[in-house]
Amino acid sequence: MTAHQMLCHLTDSYRSVIGERKLSPAQPSLALRLMPRPMLMWIVLDAPMKWPHNVPTRPENEQGAGGTPPVKFESDRRELLAALERFCSAPDSVRGPHPMMGLLTREQWMKWGYLHADHHLRQFGA
Predict the structure, then answer these.
(1) Is the pLDDT higher at 86 or at 6?
(2) Given pLDDT bands bounded at 50, 70 and 90, which one contains residue 26?
(3) Are 115 and 51 in contact (CB under 8 A)?
(4) Which residues, other chains included, contact 66 with Cβ-Cβ below 8 Å and sequence gap of 6+?
């Protein structure tokens, strides 16, 4: 993934959370299906470690598959910032369940949003 593709991927992800993009249902691995939901949520949102690389994403948000292709860097950057603003200001009733973790509180969604962006920005040393 290039830095430009990452902008589009994050935009797609934030838009998916607030219902502006549709996602297919996730098919979690056997290990994830057997893991208690509170443990999965702690690992993803609270564990003192960085998210691992190469964790599969939903195909609709994957660059090179169904994700929004990059067009112009500056306009895609502005769209990311606008999507992030809508994600942060959306009422709780708009946010659907996370594909792997299920229903999240506003606080959990905000933490996920930060961690997701941080994960990808670190890929590019930002």
Answers:
(1) 86
(2) confident
(3) yes
(4) 59, 60
Instruction: Measure the CA–CA gap between 56 and 71, rounded to whole angstroms.
Output: 24
List the domain boundaries for the chain: 3-46+56-123
> Which amino acid is residue 60, in one-letter code?
E
- C-alpha pair distances (Å), 87 with each of 2, 37, 75: 23, 23, 18
Contact assessment for residue 13 and residue 68, using Cβ atoms and an 8 Å cutoff: no
Q: Supply the pTM of this predicted model.
A: 0.88
pLDDT tens across 83-108, in order?
Answer: 999 999 999 888 888 888 888 999 99
Report the alpha-carbon distance of residue 23 to residue 125 in Å, rounded.
29
